[in-house]
Design a protein that fits this description.
With 251 residues, this protein is mainly α. It has one domain. Helix content is 80%, strand content 0%. The protein contains 9 helices and no strands. Helix 4 runs parallel beside helix 7. The chain starts with a helix and ends with a helix. The relative contact order is 0.24.
């Protein structure tokens, strides 16, 4: 364990961007998931929980069963695995391109783009009049959602393996919020730090979906209202953090 922690610390120290990027994306996932992930992934979470609870005999139903069924750990492991893979891929591409003579400052430019995306999400919440002018990160294309639903519709959602497969598939569900995180991860310096950045982001998205899984959509809405109040501030903070990191990389 000590060797693992030392390796992680060395990895973050080797890439200065990661030191600020990891906590920034963790907070972004934590605050933004309630207003982005709950509407998009909440139905998939509730469907899995309902299937699991339907398989439990009435005599065995208890609070522990309900909490355990709502955690959906294989599903979240699947999602975060896909996020980590995408983060590693985009970071590898970004790192390779930044070595080209005419793209030496690409990492800084990517961070500025990510900062702009987070800023847009904050302004959509703070200034409703700008909704029509700024991109929305709270909804995935209906066609893609139907495609994922069709591909996973035959899975037995009550089993851990099906939960893992569903999480792996839904990790590709497109949304602007995910694009902002991936853009930031692509400037992290390499595949390992890109994967770590997206793991941090994915871990931040877990609490809101666990709340929905354990206590239902009503509790998810309560979490959503609370998180919506602080989400714009967190998005603005991330925009500032990414801008500072970008300017440091460009200078």
């Amino acid at each position: 364990m000590d060797h693992s922690l030392a390796a992680l610390a060395a990895l973050c120290a080797a890439t200065p961007l990661a030191g600020g990027l990891l906590p920034g994306l963790l907070l972004a996932g934590l605050a933004g998931s309630a207003i982005h992930c709950v509407p998009m992934c909440g139905p998939f979470v509730l469907g899995q929980v309902a299937d699991r609870m339907a398989r439990v005999p009435a005599v065995r139903l208890c609070e522990l069963q309900r909490v355990g069924g709502g955690l959906l750990l294989p599903y979240h492991v699947g999602r975060i695995t896909t996020y980590a893979g995408l983060g590693a891929l985009t970071a590898a591409i970004g790192s390779a391109l930044s070595r080209l003579p005419w793209l030496g400052r690409l990492s800084g430019l990517l961070l500025l783009v990510a900062a702009l995306l987070f800023l847009c999400q904050a302004l959509r919440r703070l200034v409703p009049a700008l909704h029509a002018l700024l991109p929305d990160a709270s909804a995935a294309p209906h066609g893609f959602v139907r495609l994922i639903a069709g591909l996973t519709g035959r899975l037995d959602r009550s089993t851990p393996l099906s939960g893992l497969l569903l999480g792996l598939a839904l990790g590709f569900l497109p949304c602007g919020f995910l694009y902002a995180a991936l853009t930031a991860a692509s400037a992290s310096g390499g595949p390992a730090t890109g994967a770590l950045a997206m793991v941090a982001f994915g871990l931040g998205t877990v609490p809101s979906l666990v709340a929905v899984g354990i206590a239902g959509q009503a509790a998810g809405r309560r979490w959503q209202r609370g998180a919506a109040a602080v989400a714009p501030a967190v998005m603005l903070l991330n925009a500032v953090l990414l801008t500072v990191l970008a300017l440091r990389g460009i200078a």
